[in-house]
Fold each of these.
Amino acid sequence: MEDRDDYDDVSMDRDLERYLRYLEKSVRELQVEKKSLMDELGQCRIELEKMLQPPLIEAVVIDVLPDGRVIVKSSTGPNLIVGVSSRVDPSGLRPGVSVALNNRGSEIVEILGTREDPLVTAMKLVEKPKTKYSDIGGLEEQIREIREVVELPLKNPELFRKLGIEPPKGVLLYGPPGVGKTLLARAVAGETNATFIRLVASELAQKFIGEGARIVREVFALARKNAPSIVLIDEIDAIAAKRIDIGTSGEREIHRTLTQLLAELDGFDPLDNVKIIATTNRIDILDPAILRPGRFDRIIYIPLPDKRARKEIFRVHTRRLNIKGEIDLDMLASITEGASGADIKAICTEAGYIAIRAGRDYITLEDLVEAAKKIMSKKGSGISGVVDVETPPTAQNKQAAYQHI
Ligand SMILES: Nc1ncnc2c1ncn2[C@@H]1O[C@H](COP(=O)(O)OP(=O)(O)OP(=O)(O)O)[C@@H](O)[C@H]1O
Ligand SMILES: [Mg+2]
């Protein structure tokens, strides 16, 4: 009997031991699971905290006051006078630096550093324009002149240093609409190995208060950083009209943009490898300040094409057309007296439509003649509804105005 009990005891011990081991293993497993759940909880807490945090406000430092407070222009609108958090190094606060304000907008909590405006960065054409000099008809003299002023100093600054002369900083192209001013500027950029930045002045003029001037500043900084570069300011009259009547805040704003532009023109060394090309069809309303020597030193007039030039422009634009038969370029040039390059381009496009309407996939001389008649008669009546022709009825008067400048 005793034996039996002994046996039972031993087996119970063994069972208990096994059970204990089993429990120990479970505890270990649960501990591991607990740890992973705690980790997860921690992550969730961090996420939650981030979600509950109000957003910071972006602002740009305008000035640092003697008492250490800072005037900033907040992205929400007004200029604010704010304190600086003790975590921020005040020596990094300079005008123009971008900072983050706390959510109440009362304190600078972080310096974001100077950053390029995405607007400005977008303006930099990483892809150079594909325009070539051979895409321009009849402007040989103007091409020669602009190459001398823009290309030569960029390619061979040494020559200018040796001669002791200062190459011009900028060129102004002016003339009636649609004669190829923008085209010529793009071709210079396309043929030179320079960074090309295009600024459309009318867009600048629409910017918020202070923005226009800032963008001008940033564009020039970008141009200098990526030198050699060409800055094209298209339709400069939008910001450089005579500063006569500075009444509304919009006009004051444009004035500030212009002042900044003049400061940039004066500010950089002409051998800085930044060249500016501006275009306008209203040189008569430009502020004389912009035309002062040392700013746009070369002013190149681009006239309406004469007969020879029109023939060349027809040659350029008919090159890509699928034409059947002979094309009499001389004849086309002679029936398009007064047409601009843009008109000639429109004539070629219109000829294509005439061919389409006739169910053909090629263009004939007759199509071109018919298109020319159509475009020229519209031009005469002052209507300019075809393609991208932009010829206001006053073109002739303006033409007269350019002549005496
Ligand atoms: N001399 C030219 N040779 C070839 N094409 C031309 C010429 N002039 C104008 N064109 C054609 O007309 C289009 C418009 O020209 P462009 O934009 O250069 O005119 P613009 O002088 O800048 O006019 P605006 O003063 O209205 O800005 C060009 O894209 C081009 O196709
Ligand atoms: Mg233009």
Amino acid sequence: MSEISRQEFLKMTASAGAALLLSSLETFAKENNATKLRVAVIGCGSVSNRYIPHLQSSAMIDVVSLCDIKYERAVAQKKQYNVNAETYPNIDALLKGVPFDMMVTLTDMQLHGELNKKALMAGKHVWSEKPMANTYAEGKALLDLAKSKNLRLWGAPAVVNSPQFSFMAKCIQEGKLGRLASAHGQYGHTGPGWSSFFYEKGGGSMPDLGVYNIATLTGLLGPALSIMAMTSIVNPERMIDGKGLVKVEAEDNAHILIDHGKGIISHVMCGFNYFDPHGHEAKAQQLHSIQIFGDKGNLRLIGYDWETNGVYLDDSWDNPATLYEKEPGGYLWQEGATKVGESILSKTESKINVEHALHVLEVMEAARKSSATGTKIKMQSTFKFPIL
Ligand SMILES: NC(=O)c1ccc[n+]([C@@H]2O[C@H](COP(=O)([O-])OP(=O)(O)OC[C@H]3O[C@@H](n4cnc5c(N)ncnc54)[C@H](O)[C@@H]3O)[C@@H](O)[C@H]2O)c1
């Protein structure tokens, strides 16, 4: 605890829970001679603009390395965010460079599995942007590898951390919706224009967008037992910055039906051709992107599940629906790596669960298989439920 004093730390977090965390932090520091978790960021593109400042905002984390195959991007981010970090042009140089504890993977989706494996092999914990691997089998092998080396691995998204997710989980558990029946999730915009990997094989609107709704709905209604889906390519070509016209190979439109058991069925639609004037900006978004129905009530989440503007609970024949949890309550969608990094230091368990991320990965793979074969696909994986 050389970097922050007890007083500063308590002031910063101002809660009784913090005192508990502090004592476990002190124990960790004594046992491991560690004061901060050293983090390496690989992939210094668009999303790193959200991750780097968030990681820097934690008193428990030091960003010590930045890496990008477009090396000038690593150098630019170091300068932009004034990071006291070494910069590297590839993962091999990164792993041979200054020591670190956890790698944060923010590269093109298709490379996550390969890069995460290299980091685990080198003894690093890993937080990966979604998806954590290209296939369920690859993801499962990564988790087995992490476990065999006593390392931690996590996959985005962090939606289970939001107060709105907690509120919805509580309503369901308290029976406010009665017998659960159906749910719907949707997330779409007109698609990213800055990188082609979103449209190449292994990309697509499911791992980029649908992944949030699938994580939310399985997180609230339970693991999927089976999947049926239809996916399509609506727009066969895309104009990409600096690259020109590229061929679209991954689905840019997907409808996924999830059987959660006990008769509960949910539906997710996601795509890169959905006009929405709010696009990526969630602040003013009023769309009810998640809706959950039971026979005594329904929940309608406003805005996106990764950054929402509240949840309506409608459970009265006489009174209008009430809006709850209008404020983010400190939650930010880009907080996953920071939160799990802090959980390593404090030896606490994060709400974000890698088995859940792996399950979501299997749902997306099953959806592709279902669409290609016209059949219902049985799921193999599951995760600890309820999450909260
Ligand atoms: N952009 C967003 O708003 C956003 C939000 C949430 C999640 N994500 C996820 O974050 C990931 C990255 O998305 P992005 O929008 O930042 O993409 P991006 O194209 O802007 O950035 C990716 C970066 O990774 C680098 N890279 C590629 N291969 C590499 C390798 N082998 N080693 C090192 N660096 C490599 C690229 O040069 C590029 O700078 C994706 O999984 C995406 O789904 C993005």
